[in-house]
Amino acid sequence: MQTFYKICLLLLIVGGVNWGLVGLFQFDLVGWLLGGSTSVWSRIVFALVGLAALGCIPNLFSEEPEEE
């Protein structure tokens, strides 16, 4: 399960960086790399980022032991 959350975190970082670039510079990095915002590949990446966000929701409510 740890690998799943690492993949989700990586996808969320990609999405966050992309949204930061869109907000600051109106530049869609994922769309630029994959042939435009409406290309099939860009839409797949956008869908995976959204699914990763949904997959990380349970992690918000899990209780982990505190590290000292």
Q: Which keywords apply here?
A:
68 residues; mainly alpha; 76% helix; elongated; transmembrane helix; transmembrane
Structure explained in plain terms:
With 68 residues, the chain is mostly helical. The chain has one domain (1-53). 76% of the residues lie in helices and 0% in strands. The chain has helices at 2-25, 29-34, 40-61. α1 (2-25) crosses α3. The protein is elongated, with a radius of gyration of 14 Å. This is DUF378 domain-containing protein. Keywords: Membrane, Transmembrane, Transmembrane helix. It comes from Faecalibacterium tardum.
In short, what is this structure?
Helix content is 76%, strand content 0%. It is an all-alpha fold and 68 residues long. The protein has one domain.
Produce the secondary structure layout.
Elements: H1 2-25, H2 29-34, H3 40-61
Helix pairs in contact: 1-3
Query: What count of helical segments does DSSP give?
Result: 3
Instruction: State the end-to-end CA separation.
Output: 24 Å
What is the overall shape?
Answer: elongated
Low-confidence stretches: none
Going by helix content, strand content and strand pairing, the class is mainly alpha
Helix content: over 70%
Order of helices and strands: HHH
Largest β sheet strand count, sense and barrel closure:
none
Nearest-angstrom radius of gyration? 14 Å
Count the domains: 1
Strand fraction: under 5%
Give the total of beta strands.
0
Mean pLDDT: 91
Keywords: Membrane, Transmembrane, Transmembrane helix
Protein name: DUF378 domain-containing protein
InterPro entries: DUF378
Transmembrane segments: 7-34, 40-61
